[in-house]
Prior knowledge:
With 395 residues, chain A is an alpha/beta fold. Chain A is built from twelve helices and 15 strands. In chain A, α9 packs across α10. The interface between A and B is large, with 96 and 92 residues.
Amino acid sequence: MFIINGLKNSRKNIFLCLIFLIVFLIGGNLTCSGVEAEDFFELKELDERTDGFFIMKDMQTSETIMRTARIIHPGDEYISSKNKFYRVERIEGDIAWAHFIEDIKLFEVNVEEVLNSLMIKGGTFQEGQPQRRDILLGVYHSHGAESYVPSDGTESILQGGGILDVGRAFSEALREKGLNVNYSPETHVPHDAGTYHRSRRTAEELLRQGSSSIFDIHRDAVPAEEYIGTVDGRPTVQLQFVVGRQNQNAQANRDFAESLKKVTDDIHPGLIKGIFLARANYNQDMLPLAMLVEVGSHENTREGAERSVALFSDAVGAYFLGREGQRARQGVGATALRSILWVIFIVAVVLGVYLLISNENIDELRAKLRHFFSKEFAEFRSRKRKGGGDNGAGE
Amino acid sequence: MNIGMVLLLAVAIIIYFGLAQRVLDRLRLSDRAALLFLVAMIVGGFLPDIPLVGGTSINLGGGVVPIILVIYLWSKAEKPEISRSVTALLITAVVVYATMKIMPLEPTYNFFLDPLYIIAIIAGVVAYITGRSRRGSFIAGTMAIVLSDIAAQVENAFAGVRSSVTIGGAGVFDAVVIAGLIALGLAEFVGETVERVSLELKGAKKEDQNNKDFHGENPPESKQENRPEE
Lengths: 395, 230
């Protein structure tokens, strides 16, 4: 009965909500550049542009830097396979014009030392190496329905796409290196915008089990040739790292991506296509050593993707077991320390704005702060405190 | 992980917990009760999930404790507020579920924020508009995510897809808790701002009124302040 009463009483609220929803939909439709209205309201295949893809081009030379089915925004950044750093300045139709910033110098790796320390010859681990069970990695898929058209016959399988096989192959290859791996085959369907909040639970579970690093394995949705490179003289499906810029670990995540790319470049040059620094979170706020990896595109073969993750596991093994990898992780740690200052600064600014808005003058602000420190904490300090001030919501 | 990474996570977690405690404190809970619920969410997050039906399970910290908190808030609320918060919850759940369907799958498709935050903010905004109170916002924000999880499982069942969902599986870092806290935080922020602005306007109006009274145009007015609801 109270629901009905509530509905009667809140007709005005419902009206407000509908207005909000309409504004949200229209606003979203207008803001989501590059996506046609009919595509936006289509409730399927929203992760892939059927009308084409974005081409990132160098503003100075007009050369193509990369192509992707992901929507690119001004401010997005990209580190190419040659370690050239670009920032997107403007979008014109399907072209994202990017400004060349600088050549990134990744940390130096003594490849011989890495290979010797891991007993790898020619990128392949030898038998009989010691097991390193103290390092645990987590592998999962936020979009477990993704699949590869040439091998799986379709680009998405709700029960579990070909990407699960790629994840299993990656986990198995890592175990062969002596690393301990927890693999989750959870698909996180339905395939909608809630997948990342569902996969967040899987990521949390992997962390709870003690994972030092977590890998979210995906595939992209661009023409096959975009992800074909030459590795060790053979045509190979390439990988791309994606770093979410909207989290407090973003800089550390980026350092992790760069150092992992450097190790990969030294062991299997050409395997990593680049690093896309995108406007998102990707649950990378949960750990500095969290990585989203695109393994090829939906038009590449699943078998090719499986071979590529096996190659990539050589680099991951080197990163986590080798001395150079240890040095790289220390670099990520130093970046993390710098990030702490930013986190504290941002929180201070937000709190400052809130206090300025909610108080009439400095005296009121002082009084509130005095009340906060003298009374609110006093409850924890003294059990003797009683009375009306106990209720923190009374203001 | 080395010391830098550990400290970064520690600082982020301390700030998150600190804000969470302050936000929960605004639910007419005592400081100790707010802290107790927060600790229960944190500790419960590490305990094994409780299996329910059809591949659905629930986490103690991210699912059971927030639901207990919501029931506790309902038990303390007046009937009109309960009905209002239930209405807010239903509307918010529908909007959140529709948002998940309408919004693009890939985070990079989105307008300015990751879906994790957008959905939580939408839950918060709708919950505040419909709930019109801090408690109403928290209830609607939290439970809307729980309902959307159940709806996702129902959708999977209809599609013949076997999948497992753990409600609040990420414990205190789950969208269930984050949405509730953001909703409550928004209510607090908007509430304080509206209060501040309305008091300013009231003050200006009053001053104007006093000027008119001074010239003998109007009789005196009552001094009731316009304060937002809890």
